[in-house]
């Protein structure tokens, strides 16, 4: 798939794949490390992005390293705007997934000139209450050197019963996957926790597709609906049976994204 890795301005890491002439920037979901994913996570990402890479040169981008305490989402968006402008020299399609969608929407509010079209997946004008609380608990536990992964169980699974079963297993494996230096992840979590652009949605005129999971506890569909309703040129698609991860993995997802970016109408998965 012609895979390439590198860094953009401010040290934003990216992984590019596909042979299309037109770029599509994918802002990654929440990760505990700013680097490009490796191992099985790399394989999963390449598989997920492969359908989009059949038409576009896809750039999966993560946050900058060394994020300082007190960094705001506005500052994160500014870094992205500068990096994307330097790399591409003009507007590009941007797909923001989960936390990457938070960055994308702040970017659209502050720097709309970097966009052609925008897709927000499992993301809205602010975080869902459960996701905000879970990420803060996770970040604070990591910062204190305590077991942390189990705090994310409820937002990782659409079934509360399954999350309750899996949480103890996540507690057990935590020491093997916990970030060794969590400070920049903690800074990002606190920036996203404070993020809310609901009062600015009417200003965002970037053509936008919002994709929600009907059973997503991390970004509930009502948050996505308020986001789409508040924007002058946005439409909403809800995958009624999908949870958070299931939304991105839904077979309809790449079809809807490609249809929208091509100027057509997405389906109603």
UniProtKB/TrEMBL annotation:
- What keyword terms does UniProt attach to this protein? Hydrolase
Q: Which GO terms describe its molecular function?
A: hydrolase activity
Q: Name one Pfam family in it.
A: Abhydrolase_6
Q: Where is the signal peptide?
A: none
Superkingdom to which the source organism belongs:
Bacteria
What InterPro entries does the annotation carry? Answer: AB_hydrolase_1 (IPR000073), AB_hydrolase_fold (IPR029058), AB_hydrolase_sf (IPR050266)
AB hydrolase-1 domain sequence ranges: 36-251
Keyword Hydrolase included in the entry's annotation: yes
Asked if the Swiss-Prot or TrEMBL record annotates the protein with the keyword Hydrolase, the reply is yes
Q: Which PANTHER family match?
A: AB HYDROLASE SUPERFAMILY PROTEIN YCLE, MONOACYLGLYCEROL LIPASE
What is the official name of this protein in its record?
Alpha/beta fold hydrolase
Organism, scientific name: Streptomyces ureilyticus
* Native organism taxonomy: Bacteria, Bacillati, Actinomycetota, Actinomycetes, Kitasatosporales
